[in-house]
Prior knowledge:
This protein has 338 residues and is an alpha+beta fold. The chain is 32% helix and 20% strand. The chain has 11 helices and 14 strands.
Amino acid sequence: MRQKTDKIYGELLSRVRVGSMTVDDIKLLEQRKITIDSSLSYHDRLQEVCNYIEKLPLDTVCLVPTCKQCDIINSVMTNKIFSEEIIFKAHDYIDCPKSLKKKACDTLIKIEEDASRSAGLAGIIVIKIGAKVMLRQNIDVTLGLVNGAVGTVISISKSIDGSKIQGVNVDFGSGKVNTIERAKVKFQLLERAFVIREQFPLCLSFAVTIHKSQGLSLKILLLKQAIVFLMLVKYMLLFLGLQNLKDYYLINFDPHSVKANLLAIEEFNRLRKIYRSDLPPIPVSSIRWHKVWDLIWAVDENSVEIITKTLKKSCEKLLVLRGIENSDCISSGLNSVI
């Protein structure tokens, strides 16, 4: 339904869905790639990505496949803001038998940074005045204060004596400032162990994971109002993230990684033959596209060195592989495999 006005793109997604991309599909998607100089250092590449993000409209959300990449972009973008960090620590109360108290506390520490396991409320939130944040709960649908609403932190509200932060004042694009107060949720840690948490239902939103975006009321996904980065294409993450091609830009695009489960397609065709014989079977492509190595931009410097050394070592092993000589008297590893 989303692509009914763009037949070419709709058909492209239908082929991506079953892992049967054509040369034209790849060329079309590659037109959406942002060019970054691969000779730059890791830090310079990361800065170039974030500089591009900084120029985009407020309601732009960058979709990335991993939490690690999400944290890196949010961290770098927040550091670009010249204001003091504001730290919100959750108020937690553990409700469990005394015998489970220690185990429950240890479990809570382990999931401290995983808001998905704590009803969307993080244990610690670090923001700045001017940072872009996302609402993690539905507060008032009539005012547009819904899960996924993106806005800018304008200020904070403190108690009369200034000892306690009572609210975060956010402009969600309407020009009107809304005060977001702490929300209270209850979630389960272990069997017979629960946590009652009070925390501001906010998170940095320069980037979010593709999976998280599927459950959010993002304007960008509904109204197609901005550009979205899809940093890394792995399997069907491409199909989940792409909805309107002209609003999307890619940094890494590897056609080799766009795959579909062949057993699922076979089962689909079996059922279609039985119940919808009027429809043609889904074609299964045997083409394996050339591997395009990802541009490294969102990993630690140490990891970059390890990956580089690993690739170098792998290539050295490949180069010394011996096989039957070709007609030009050069030994070929491919002939050895054959």
